[in-house]
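Supplementary notes for students who missed Thursday's class. We covered one full example, reproduced here. Read the sequence, then the structure, then the short commentary at the end.
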Amino acid sequence: MWRPPTKLVVTVVALVATSLPSAAELVVFSGGHVLKVAGFEVAGDRVELRLAGGGAVRVSLSTVERIVDDEIEAPAEVLEEAASPSPVSIGFGEVEPVPGTPYGDLIFAAAKREKLNPALVAAMVRHESAFDPGAVSVKGARGLMQLMPATAQRFGVPASELFNPERNLQAGTKYLRWLAGRFPEDLPRILAAYNAGEANVARYDGVPPFRETRGYIRRIYGTLGIDEDPLAAK
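Structure (token representation):
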């Protein structure tokens, strides 16, 4: 399990004892540790975390798996019942067309290698980066599948190669395959984990109640041509 540096421990303890604002971000570190912060700023390979109780700390971006907006859309207890098996195929079928998108051939090859639906991967790339291999988010995610350096390193791709479309797709589809194994046939939770981190899916025992994450899932479903709300209470 990730453990914060010694100097950070005291500050984190003070943060826990302080009333936290409703608008904030959740920083998910490698190993699953989650820290709620008032704000952040990425500069190169480091990120400054502004603590709600005052002060700030700087950590290596390579230790951060996710930064997600902590904006609640609905009570968590409603969402715990919402995740369910998806009508969308997650796996690679017998006859799958090459996506008619930029980098369609690379997407198809990466999806086939990891036994994933190429249309699903293409939809994710569309909403992650708009097919821009040089895309960098304000949270530090990079490339076609908007991977954080720490996540890419988990799956064998160093941060220096994340702007290479083939390598980015390699790491992203390996991560997606790993999530598909953790949440079998449950696309809402798979997508939620990709967006907000598997630690947050485990924390809520389902799709987290984050507006950003729920909107992401709905956009992917829409691109795949599915009209039903994947998060509607069952």
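Commentary. The chain has two domains: 6-69, 76-223. DSSP finds nine helices and six strands in the chain. If anything here is unclear, bring it to office hours.
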